[in-house]
Amino acid sequence: MSARGRHRRPSASARFVSHATLVIASSAGVALVGASGAQAASVDTWDKVAECESSGNWKANTGNGFFGGLQFTESTWNAFGGTKYAPRADQATKDQQIAIAEEVLAVQGPGAWPVCSGKAGLTKGGAAPEISPDAAPKPQPKKEKPAPKPAGGEGDRASTYTVVPGDSLYGIAESHDVRGGWQALYKDNRETVGDDPRLILPGQKLSLDGEREHRAAPKHAAPKAAEKPAKPAAPKKAAAPAAAPGFSAPVGDLSIGTPYHQAGGSWSSGYHTGVDFPVPTGTPVKSVADGEVVSAGQGGSYGNEVVIRHADGKYSQYAHLSQLSVSAGQTVKGGQQLGLSGATGNVSGPHLHLEVRTGQGYGSDIDPVAYLRSHGINL
To answer: Low complexity bias located where (predicted)?
Structure first.
Protein backbone atom coordinates (compact mmCIF):
# COMPACT_ATOMS: atom_id res chain seq x y z
CA MET A 1 0.00 0.00 0.00
CA SER A 2 1.26 3.52 -0.63
CA ALA A 3 0.18 7.07 0.02
CA ARG A 4 1.52 10.54 -0.21
CA GLY A 5 1.96 10.83 3.54
CA ARG A 6 4.97 9.27 5.14
CA HIS A 7 4.87 8.60 8.88
CA ARG A 8 2.93 7.72 11.97
CA ARG A 9 2.40 10.89 14.00
CA PRO A 10 3.94 10.87 17.50
CA SER A 11 2.25 12.44 20.49
CA ALA A 12 2.37 16.18 21.04
CA SER A 13 4.60 15.71 24.10
CA ALA A 14 7.17 13.88 22.02
CA ARG A 15 7.20 16.46 19.25
CA PHE A 16 7.49 19.88 20.84
CA VAL A 17 8.91 21.20 24.10
CA SER A 18 6.58 22.94 26.51
CA HIS A 19 6.02 26.66 26.68
CA ALA A 20 7.85 26.69 30.01
CA THR A 21 10.97 25.24 28.39
CA LEU A 22 10.81 27.92 25.71
CA VAL A 23 10.78 30.63 28.34
CA ILE A 24 13.90 29.14 29.94
CA ALA A 25 15.61 28.92 26.56
CA SER A 26 14.79 32.53 25.82
CA SER A 27 16.06 33.75 29.19
CA ALA A 28 19.29 31.84 28.59
CA GLY A 29 20.00 33.97 25.55
CA VAL A 30 18.79 31.63 22.80
CA ALA A 31 17.37 33.72 19.96
CA LEU A 32 13.87 32.79 18.94
CA VAL A 33 13.92 34.81 15.72
CA GLY A 34 16.24 35.24 12.79
CA ALA A 35 17.69 31.72 12.50
CA SER A 36 21.09 31.81 10.79
CA GLY A 37 22.10 29.73 7.79
CA ALA A 38 23.98 27.38 10.13
CA GLN A 39 20.67 26.52 11.79
CA ALA A 40 18.42 26.37 8.78
CA ALA A 41 16.94 24.10 6.12
CA SER A 42 16.00 24.62 2.49
CA VAL A 43 12.43 25.01 1.23
CA ASP A 44 12.83 21.65 -0.50
CA THR A 45 13.66 19.99 2.83
CA TRP A 46 10.67 21.63 4.54
CA ASP A 47 8.48 20.40 1.68
CA LYS A 48 9.64 16.86 2.43
CA VAL A 49 8.88 17.29 6.14
CA ALA A 50 5.38 18.58 5.28
CA GLU A 51 4.83 15.66 2.89
CA CYS A 52 5.62 13.30 5.75
CA GLU A 53 3.67 15.21 8.43
CA SER A 54 0.49 16.16 6.56
CA SER A 55 0.70 14.71 3.05
CA GLY A 56 1.90 18.15 1.95
CA ASN A 57 -1.30 19.93 3.00
CA TRP A 58 -0.20 23.34 4.32
CA LYS A 59 -3.79 24.08 5.40
CA ALA A 60 -4.19 20.81 7.37
CA ASN A 61 -6.64 21.00 10.30
CA THR A 62 -8.17 17.61 11.13
CA GLY A 63 -9.16 18.43 14.71
CA ASN A 64 -6.33 16.44 16.33
CA GLY A 65 -4.52 19.46 17.85
CA PHE A 66 -1.89 19.79 15.09
CA PHE A 67 -2.12 22.44 12.39
CA GLY A 68 -0.59 23.34 9.05
CA GLY A 69 1.81 21.52 6.78
CA LEU A 70 4.41 21.06 9.53
CA GLN A 71 1.82 20.16 12.19
CA PHE A 72 2.42 22.81 14.84
CA THR A 73 0.58 22.76 18.15
CA GLU A 74 -1.04 26.06 19.07
CA SER A 75 1.30 26.48 22.06
CA THR A 76 4.41 26.06 19.90
CA TRP A 77 3.04 28.38 17.23
CA ASN A 78 2.30 31.03 19.85
CA ALA A 79 5.60 30.65 21.72
CA PHE A 80 7.73 31.10 18.61
CA GLY A 81 5.88 34.19 17.40
CA GLY A 82 3.57 32.63 14.84
CA THR A 83 0.64 34.82 15.84
CA LYS A 84 2.31 37.78 14.17
CA TYR A 85 1.28 36.05 10.95
CA ALA A 86 -1.95 34.22 11.83
CA PRO A 87 -3.82 32.86 14.90
CA ARG A 88 -2.94 29.25 13.91
CA ALA A 89 -0.45 27.64 11.57
CA ASP A 90 -3.09 26.33 9.15
CA GLN A 91 -4.21 29.93 8.60
CA ALA A 92 -0.69 31.11 7.69
CA THR A 93 1.08 30.89 4.33
CA LYS A 94 3.63 28.22 3.54
CA ASP A 95 6.49 30.75 3.82
CA GLN A 96 5.22 31.94 7.20
CA GLN A 97 5.04 28.38 8.52
CA ILE A 98 8.58 27.72 7.32
CA ALA A 99 9.77 30.93 9.00
CA ILE A 100 8.41 29.76 12.36
CA ALA A 101 9.72 26.24 11.75
CA GLU A 102 13.20 27.76 11.33
CA GLU A 103 12.88 29.28 14.82
CA VAL A 104 11.80 25.93 16.25
CA LEU A 105 14.68 24.20 14.48
CA ALA A 106 17.20 26.70 15.92
CA VAL A 107 16.05 26.04 19.49
CA GLN A 108 14.86 22.42 19.51
CA GLY A 109 16.74 20.95 16.58
CA PRO A 110 15.40 18.30 14.18
CA GLY A 111 13.99 16.35 17.16
CA ALA A 112 10.94 18.62 17.08
CA TRP A 113 9.87 16.37 14.16
CA PRO A 114 11.30 13.08 15.48
CA VAL A 115 10.07 10.79 12.70
CA CYS A 116 9.82 13.06 9.69
CA SER A 117 13.16 14.85 10.22
CA GLY A 118 14.99 11.59 9.56
CA LYS A 119 12.91 10.74 6.51
CA ALA A 120 13.24 14.25 5.06
CA GLY A 121 16.94 14.69 5.88
CA LEU A 122 16.23 17.68 8.13
CA THR A 123 19.34 19.03 9.94
CA LYS A 124 20.41 22.32 11.48
CA GLY A 125 23.22 22.76 8.98
CA GLY A 126 21.30 23.43 5.78
CA ALA A 127 21.12 26.52 3.61
CA ALA A 128 18.72 29.26 4.66
CA PRO A 129 15.38 28.90 2.86
CA GLU A 130 14.39 31.43 0.22
CA ILE A 131 11.08 32.60 1.67
CA SER A 132 9.08 35.82 1.95
CA PRO A 133 6.90 35.40 5.04
CA ASP A 134 5.79 39.05 5.02
CA ALA A 135 4.60 38.99 1.41
CA ALA A 136 0.87 39.09 0.77
CA PRO A 137 -0.54 35.63 -0.03
CA LYS A 138 -1.13 34.98 -3.71
CA PRO A 139 -4.82 34.88 -4.64
CA GLN A 140 -5.97 31.40 -5.57
CA PRO A 141 -7.80 31.12 -8.90
CA LYS A 142 -11.40 30.10 -8.58
CA LYS A 143 -12.31 26.73 -10.00
CA GLU A 144 -15.11 26.96 -12.48
CA LYS A 145 -17.84 24.39 -12.16
CA PRO A 146 -18.47 22.39 -15.34
CA ALA A 147 -21.64 23.29 -17.16
CA PRO A 148 -24.50 20.92 -16.35
CA LYS A 149 -25.30 18.31 -18.97
CA PRO A 150 -28.51 19.04 -20.88
CA ALA A 151 -31.37 16.78 -19.94
CA GLY A 152 -32.11 14.07 -22.48
CA GLY A 153 -35.28 14.20 -24.51
CA GLU A 154 -38.27 12.20 -23.41
CA GLY A 155 -37.99 9.98 -26.49
CA ASP A 156 -34.44 8.94 -25.54
CA ARG A 157 -35.51 7.01 -22.44
CA ALA A 158 -36.85 3.50 -22.22
CA SER A 159 -40.27 3.14 -20.61
CA THR A 160 -39.19 0.38 -18.20
CA TYR A 161 -35.97 -0.94 -16.72
CA THR A 162 -35.20 -4.40 -15.30
CA VAL A 163 -32.99 -4.38 -12.19
CA VAL A 164 -29.70 -6.32 -12.37
CA PRO A 165 -27.27 -7.22 -9.54
CA GLY A 166 -25.35 -4.20 -8.24
CA ASP A 167 -28.00 -1.65 -9.30
CA SER A 168 -29.21 1.21 -7.12
CA LEU A 169 -32.05 3.66 -7.65
CA TYR A 170 -29.50 6.47 -7.81
CA GLY A 171 -27.47 4.76 -10.53
CA ILE A 172 -30.57 3.90 -12.60
CA ALA A 173 -31.90 7.47 -12.34
CA GLU A 174 -28.54 8.90 -13.40
CA SER A 175 -28.01 6.57 -16.37
CA HIS A 176 -31.55 7.13 -17.69
CA ASP A 177 -31.73 10.89 -17.02
CA VAL A 178 -34.79 10.55 -14.79
CA ARG A 179 -36.02 14.00 -13.85
CA GLY A 180 -36.20 14.43 -10.12
CA GLY A 181 -33.42 11.86 -9.56
CA TRP A 182 -33.71 8.69 -7.53
CA GLN A 183 -36.35 10.25 -5.26
CA ALA A 184 -38.78 10.62 -8.17
CA LEU A 185 -37.93 7.12 -9.45
CA TYR A 186 -38.62 5.68 -6.00
CA LYS A 187 -41.89 7.60 -5.69
CA ASP A 188 -43.12 6.20 -9.02
CA ASN A 189 -42.09 2.63 -8.17
CA ARG A 190 -42.66 2.44 -4.43
CA GLU A 191 -45.27 -0.28 -4.80
CA THR A 192 -42.67 -2.45 -6.56
CA VAL A 193 -39.62 -1.54 -4.44
CA GLY A 194 -41.24 -1.49 -1.01
CA ASP A 195 -40.58 0.71 2.00
CA ASP A 196 -36.76 0.64 1.79
CA PRO A 197 -35.39 2.49 -1.30
CA ARG A 198 -31.94 1.03 -0.59
CA LEU A 199 -33.14 -2.50 -1.28
CA ILE A 200 -34.00 -3.28 -4.89
CA LEU A 201 -33.93 -6.81 -6.21
CA PRO A 202 -32.67 -8.23 -9.52
CA GLY A 203 -35.57 -8.90 -11.88
CA GLN A 204 -37.79 -6.08 -10.60
CA LYS A 205 -39.21 -3.96 -13.44
CA LEU A 206 -39.20 -0.23 -12.77
CA SER A 207 -41.24 2.31 -14.68
CA LEU A 208 -39.34 5.27 -16.12
CA ASP A 209 -42.51 6.93 -17.44
CA GLY A 210 -43.83 8.38 -14.20
CA GLU A 211 -41.96 11.66 -14.46
CA ARG A 212 -43.32 12.28 -17.93
CA GLU A 213 -46.85 11.79 -16.68
CA HIS A 214 -46.33 13.96 -13.59
CA ARG A 215 -44.70 16.75 -15.60
CA ALA A 216 -47.13 16.88 -18.54
CA ALA A 217 -47.63 20.54 -19.45
CA PRO A 218 -51.14 21.80 -18.54
CA LYS A 219 -53.26 23.08 -21.37
CA HIS A 220 -54.28 26.73 -21.19
CA ALA A 221 -56.99 28.55 -23.07
CA ALA A 222 -55.78 31.07 -25.64
CA PRO A 223 -55.50 34.56 -24.15
CA LYS A 224 -58.26 37.01 -24.91
CA ALA A 225 -57.54 39.66 -27.52
CA ALA A 226 -57.59 42.46 -24.95
CA GLU A 227 -55.22 40.64 -22.62
CA LYS A 228 -51.46 40.50 -22.90
CA PRO A 229 -50.01 37.03 -22.63
CA ALA A 230 -48.11 36.50 -19.40
CA LYS A 231 -44.32 36.38 -19.60
CA PRO A 232 -43.00 32.84 -19.42
CA ALA A 233 -41.40 32.04 -16.08
CA ALA A 234 -37.67 31.48 -16.02
CA PRO A 235 -36.86 27.77 -15.88
CA LYS A 236 -35.75 26.55 -12.48
CA LYS A 237 -32.27 25.17 -12.16
CA ALA A 238 -32.17 21.45 -11.48
CA ALA A 239 -30.92 20.63 -8.00
CA ALA A 240 -27.72 18.60 -7.72
CA PRO A 241 -28.53 14.92 -7.25
CA ALA A 242 -28.32 13.78 -3.64
CA ALA A 243 -26.36 10.74 -2.50
CA ALA A 244 -28.39 7.58 -2.34
CA PRO A 245 -30.03 7.08 1.08
CA GLY A 246 -27.84 5.32 3.60
CA PHE A 247 -24.56 6.01 1.73
CA SER A 248 -21.68 8.25 2.78
CA ALA A 249 -18.14 9.25 1.81
CA PRO A 250 -15.50 7.33 3.84
CA VAL A 251 -13.49 10.48 4.69
CA GLY A 252 -13.98 14.20 4.30
CA ASP A 253 -11.15 14.68 1.79
CA LEU A 254 -11.71 12.44 -1.25
CA SER A 255 -8.46 13.34 -3.02
CA ILE A 256 -7.05 10.10 -4.40
CA GLY A 257 -3.46 8.98 -3.80
CA THR A 258 -2.80 5.52 -5.22
CA PRO A 259 -5.71 4.59 -7.53
CA TYR A 260 -7.44 1.27 -7.93
CA HIS A 261 -5.72 -1.33 -10.15
CA GLN A 262 -2.39 0.51 -10.35
CA ALA A 263 0.18 -2.08 -11.42
CA GLY A 264 3.58 -2.75 -9.85
CA GLY A 265 4.55 -2.26 -6.24
CA SER A 266 4.79 -5.18 -3.82
CA TRP A 267 1.11 -6.16 -3.95
CA SER A 268 0.38 -9.90 -3.92
CA SER A 269 -2.11 -9.60 -6.77
CA GLY A 270 0.29 -7.55 -8.89
CA TYR A 271 -1.91 -4.47 -8.67
CA HIS A 272 -3.47 -2.14 -6.08
CA THR A 273 -6.71 -3.79 -4.93
CA GLY A 274 -8.26 -0.65 -3.43
CA VAL A 275 -7.98 3.12 -3.50
CA ASP A 276 -5.92 5.27 -1.10
CA PHE A 277 -7.08 8.55 0.40
CA PRO A 278 -3.94 10.30 1.80
CA VAL A 279 -5.39 11.87 4.94
CA PRO A 280 -3.40 12.67 8.12
CA THR A 281 -3.40 10.30 11.08
CA GLY A 282 -6.47 10.88 13.26
CA THR A 283 -8.91 11.64 10.44
CA PRO A 284 -12.40 10.18 11.16
CA VAL A 285 -13.19 7.18 8.92
CA LYS A 286 -16.87 6.43 8.21
CA SER A 287 -18.82 3.49 6.84
CA VAL A 288 -19.86 4.02 3.22
CA ALA A 289 -23.22 2.32 3.83
CA ASP A 290 -25.37 0.50 6.35
CA GLY A 291 -24.17 -2.98 7.22
CA GLU A 292 -22.73 -5.41 9.75
CA VAL A 293 -19.14 -5.44 10.99
CA VAL A 294 -17.76 -8.89 10.14
CA SER A 295 -14.24 -8.23 11.42
CA ALA A 296 -12.44 -5.49 13.34
CA GLY A 297 -8.83 -5.75 14.45
CA GLN A 298 -5.33 -6.56 13.23
CA GLY A 299 -5.24 -7.63 9.59
CA GLY A 300 -1.58 -8.34 8.85
CA SER A 301 -0.22 -6.05 6.14
CA TYR A 302 -3.51 -4.10 6.30
CA GLY A 303 -2.75 -3.12 9.92
CA ASN A 304 -5.81 -2.28 12.00
CA GLU A 305 -8.82 -2.82 9.74
CA VAL A 306 -12.61 -2.99 9.68
CA VAL A 307 -14.62 -5.09 7.20
CA ILE A 308 -18.37 -4.52 6.74
CA ARG A 309 -20.97 -6.63 4.88
CA HIS A 310 -23.69 -4.55 3.18
CA ALA A 311 -27.26 -5.34 2.18
CA ASP A 312 -26.36 -5.49 -1.53
CA GLY A 313 -23.94 -8.37 -0.86
CA LYS A 314 -20.81 -6.22 -1.17
CA TYR A 315 -18.08 -5.89 1.47
CA SER A 316 -16.11 -2.73 2.27
CA GLN A 317 -12.71 -2.77 3.98
CA TYR A 318 -11.02 0.16 5.80
CA ALA A 319 -7.31 -0.44 6.44
CA HIS A 320 -4.28 1.05 8.29
CA LEU A 321 -6.42 2.62 11.03
CA SER A 322 -4.77 4.07 14.11
CA GLN A 323 -7.86 3.49 16.26
CA LEU A 324 -11.02 1.36 16.00
CA SER A 325 -14.48 2.48 17.18
CA VAL A 326 -16.50 -0.67 16.35
CA SER A 327 -16.31 -4.42 16.96
CA ALA A 328 -17.29 -7.58 15.06
CA GLY A 329 -21.02 -8.32 15.04
CA GLN A 330 -22.00 -4.68 15.45
CA THR A 331 -24.57 -3.10 13.09
CA VAL A 332 -23.55 0.27 11.66
CA LYS A 333 -25.22 3.00 9.63
CA GLY A 334 -23.86 4.74 6.56
CA GLY A 335 -21.77 7.70 7.77
CA GLN A 336 -21.13 6.16 11.21
CA GLN A 337 -17.54 6.52 12.43
CA LEU A 338 -15.56 3.27 12.37
CA GLY A 339 -12.26 4.62 13.70
CA LEU A 340 -9.41 7.00 12.90
CA SER A 341 -7.01 6.85 9.97
CA GLY A 342 -3.36 6.01 10.55
CA ALA A 343 -0.29 4.20 9.24
CA THR A 344 -0.49 0.71 10.76
CA GLY A 345 0.52 -2.35 8.79
CA ASN A 346 2.58 -2.35 5.60
CA VAL A 347 2.57 1.33 4.61
CA SER A 348 4.93 4.20 3.91
CA GLY A 349 2.73 6.90 5.41
CA PRO A 350 -0.70 7.72 6.88
CA HIS A 351 -3.75 7.19 4.67
CA LEU A 352 -7.03 5.30 4.40
CA HIS A 353 -6.99 2.23 2.14
CA LEU A 354 -10.53 1.41 1.01
CA GLU A 355 -11.50 -1.80 -0.75
CA VAL A 356 -14.88 -2.97 -2.02
CA ARG A 357 -15.31 -6.70 -2.61
CA THR A 358 -17.91 -9.17 -3.81
CA GLY A 359 -16.81 -11.58 -1.04
CA GLN A 360 -15.21 -11.19 2.35
CA GLY A 361 -11.82 -12.59 1.29
CA TYR A 362 -8.88 -11.08 -0.56
CA GLY A 363 -9.01 -11.29 -4.36
CA SER A 364 -12.69 -10.49 -4.94
CA ASP A 365 -12.11 -6.74 -5.26
CA ILE A 366 -14.07 -4.39 -7.54
CA ASP A 367 -13.47 -0.72 -8.36
CA PRO A 368 -14.33 1.20 -5.14
CA VAL A 369 -14.56 4.55 -6.94
CA ALA A 370 -17.14 3.21 -9.39
CA TYR A 371 -19.07 1.69 -6.46
CA LEU A 372 -19.15 4.99 -4.58
CA ARG A 373 -20.14 6.95 -7.67
CA SER A 374 -22.97 4.54 -8.41
CA HIS A 375 -24.45 5.54 -5.05
CA GLY A 376 -24.13 9.29 -5.53
CA ILE A 377 -20.73 9.88 -3.88
CA ASN A 378 -18.80 12.03 -6.35
CA LEU A 379 -15.00 11.77 -6.37
So the answer is: 231-244
